[in-house]
Design goal:
Blueprint: H1 2-18, H2 45-65, H3 69-93, H4 98-123, H5 130-154, E1 166-168, H6 172-179, H7 181-187, H8 196-212, E2 216-218, H9 232-248, H10 250-263, H11 265-294
Antiparallel strand pairs: 1-2
Length: about 325
């Protein structure tokens, strides 16, 4: 009997071992792989221009250290030219992005803050010792603060559209080109006298103050979008003539340009005040209509423009419409 039970148990164990059962598991959904959206090439072109400008802005630091200031100034001018191009190219190609804005700010700080400050220090401010280095640092820090304020003001949705015609404070590229005026004058043949270093010290601090000030400066962003057909060839001639003069007589052109830029600052203030008065007058018109309605005096009716004219909505069109090219928030 015990032998039979043992045989049965052995056969049962062998049968169970031969049966292969897989553990039932319900099919789990596979995690979906995240696919990054492909970036159009046209949105990278402005960033490449900005990186090229950054390379042009870093090179003057080495050139100034090696006392090759002529090429250092040329590299700063080239970087300023590229800085004026990349934004317009981005708007034309509809390739504006937040990344491009941040990269442009970083490049501007290096190109027009750090590089000009070091150039001035290696050229003449080092003769003043610690005071010269302080002036160079103040200029670089002023450029950084100016760019930070510009980025913050871009995010302001309540900023009037007409303020897009002006910068608040001297822009960093213009500050870099202008602060190098003592070097231009030296290359014109002016002897480097003992008072040149102190004057350069004060001049550098003055330009740094203009950058962080709230002085309105005409931006020129709205200029040059449309050219009349009869003005195409004259514009070409003027541009070619300017660059020919800049290449042939660089120090004279840069000196005249820096002095003219500084002398034209009062005109920017006058233009800003004019826009401000017009905006205040446009904002006061609806308030005047409300006051008349409260006093029970009806406002004069608008003359009809003809039969079938649509009735007036009671709202006057704003004199300064919203800028379609400036979104409320950066892309």
């Amino acid at each position: 009997m015990s032998l039979a039970v043992a045989v049965v148990l052995r056969l049962r164990t062998r049968y169970i071992s031969l049966m292969v059962f897989s553990r039932y598991e319900p099919e789990r959904p596979q995690p979906r792989r995240r696919r990054f959206r492909q970036i159009p090439v046209r949105t990278r072109v402005p960033n490449l221009i900005t990186l090229l400008a950054l390379c042009a802005g870093l090179t003057p630091i080495r050139l100034a250290f090696e006392a090759q200031l002529e090429w250092a100034v040329a590299a700063i001018v080239f970087a300023a030219t590229l800085d004026g191009i990349d934004g317009r190219v981005a708007r034309m190609l509809k390739g504006t992005s937040r990344f491009g804005a941040e990269l442009d700010s970083l490049a501007d700080f290096v190109n027009f803050g750090v590089a000009p400050a070091l150039m001035l220090y290696f050229w003449g401010l080092h003769e003043l010792g610690h005071a010269g280095w302080i002036a160079a640092m103040v200029f670089a820090i002023g450029a950084g603060l100016r760019l930070a304020r510009f980025n913050v003001m871009m995010d302001d949705p309540d900023r009037p559209a007409w303020m897009g015609n002006f910068f608040v404070g001297m822009p960093a590229p213009a500050g870099a080109i202008t602060v190098l005026l003592p070097i231009y004058v030296a290359f014109l043949g002016m002897p480097k006298l003992a008072f040149i270093a102190p004057v350069t010290f004060l001049y550098t601090l003055a330009i740094a103050f203009l950058m962080v000030s709230r002085l309105p400066v005409f931006s020129g962003k709205r200029v040059g979008k449309r050219v009349a057909p009869e003005m195409v060839l004259p514009v070409f001639i003027v541009v070619v003539l300017f660059f020919a003069l800049l290449i042939s007589y660089p120090w004279i052109v840069l000196t005249i340009g820096a002095v003219a830029f500084l002398a034209s600052r009062p005109f920017g203030v006058v233009s800003y005040r004019s826009y401000e008065r017009k905006a205040a007058a446009a904002a006061a018109q609806p308030n005047a209509g409300v006051g008349q309605a409260q006093r029970g005096t009806a406002a004069p009716a608008e003359p009809l423009r003809g039969e079938g004219a649509a009735p007036s909505s009671g709202r006057s069109a704003p004199e300064f419409p919203q800028d379609p090219e400036r979104p409320a928030r950066p892309n």
